[in-house]
Amino acid sequence: MPSPLIATIEAGGTKMVAALASGPDDIRARERIPTTIPEETIPALISFLKSAIANHGQPDALVIGTFGPADITPTSPAYGHITATPKPTWENTNLLGPIQEALGVPSLFDTDVNAALFGEARWGAAAGLKNTGYFTIGTGIGGAVMIDGKLIHGMGHTEMGHMRIARHPDDSFKGHCPFHQDCLEGLAAGPAIEARWGKPAQELPADHPAWEIEADALAQACLNLLTIAPPERIILGGGVMHQSQLFPMVRKRLKELLNGYLAHPLLQGDLTNFIVPPSLGDNAGLLGCVALGHHLLTS
Ligand code: ADP
Ligand code: ZN
């Protein structure tokens, strides 16, 4: 039996990617739509999906993986809305409602990072694992946790980017989070690196002291996750992780922080298989939504 066809939207603050797909080998249509104002972007998404459906077939479900904060609790009156975002014009926007109404199929609304982890666990860097974690380190820091094959939602979605961590002893930067200053995101997201060093993260050389501080922050985040919801693997993605020298640095620092505690076999050696990059690349969000759609239809 062919896999169900899913209409997907990866909703980002800069762009949205809409697609019609049933899996990595069957992406039938895909379009990038700029995130301008809801009155423009939402009709453009509907119009693309409707024409893709006319050409490629009726989807069995609609899944949106969105930037946050967003209401992803199905029983909540504001389910499907982007909530308190600082992104102009998008605050309290019903993103799911009009699109679901236009398509008339079962739907699911979750965060972009939850979708990315779900996709990586099905087809990518965490394939076959049931307990996994994901941090995306970009303009902000987002996190996702899967336990026993299920994404953790709690009363909303995880906000692991805002966990407290200890400042690196060599660091005097006050932090960049408008709510908490020196939380993980305030110390380690791309804009924090830029504010601390006076130039964009991508312009700092691989041997710059910035990366020691960054690796320390990310290793602490991984340690905190390990102590709360022990994953078999942690994926680190997002623009900042294009600095591939960070991977061995985070693994080494995590090893130091663990200091021999948690003697699990997966935490032996140099952690090469424990801290890993994502493997689905540009299709991570899209395929994550497809995987969530399949799960929706079978659960
Ligand atoms: P978004 O957060 O919008 O999804 P990204 O994940 O690309 O987008 O994150 C953007 C942030 O990542 C910016 O702060 C940027 O400075 C940083 N960044 C992007 N590319 C790199 C790179 N090659 N090296 C280090 N930092 C990067
Ligand atoms: Zn914060």
How is the secondary structure organized here?
Elements: E1 6-11, E2 15-23, E3 26-34, H1 38-56, E4 61-66, E5 81-82, E6 93-94, H2 96-103, E7 107-111, H3 112-123, E8 132-137, E9 141-147, E10 150-151, H4 184-188, H5 190-197, H6 210-228, E11 233-237, H7 246-258, E12 275-276, H8 284-298
Parallel strand pairs: 1-4, 4-7, 8-11, 11-12
Antiparallel strand pairs: 1-2, 2-3, 5-6, 8-9, 9-10
The structure holds adenosine-5'-diphosphate and zinc ion.
Zinc ion binds at residues 162, 177, 179-180, 183, 185-186.
Task: Provide a descriptive summary of the structure in words.
33% of the residues lie in helices and 20% in strands. It has a five-stranded mixed beta sheet, sandwiched between helices. Strands 10-9-8-11-12 form a five-stranded mixed beta sheet, sandwiched between helices. The chain contains eight helices and twelve strands. It is α/β, with parallel strands linked by helices and 299 residues long. The mean pLDDT is 96. Residues 12-14, 138-139, 190-191, 194, 200-202, 238-240, 242-243 line the site of adenosine-5'-diphosphate. Adenosine-5'-diphosphate binds next to helix 5.
The ligands bound in this entry are: adenosine-5'-diphosphate, zinc ion
Structural class: alpha/beta
Order of helices and strands: EEEHEEEHEHEEEHHHEHEH
- Work out the number of β strands: 12
Strand content: 15-25%
Uncertain ranges: none
Mean pLDDT level: 96
Tell me the span between the first and last alpha carbons: 17 Å
Report the radius of gyration as a whole number of Å.
Answer: 19 Å
User: What topology, given as strand order, has the largest sheet?
Assistant: 3-2-1-4-7
Biggest sheet architecture: 5 strands, mixed
- Assign a percent range to the helix content: 25-40%
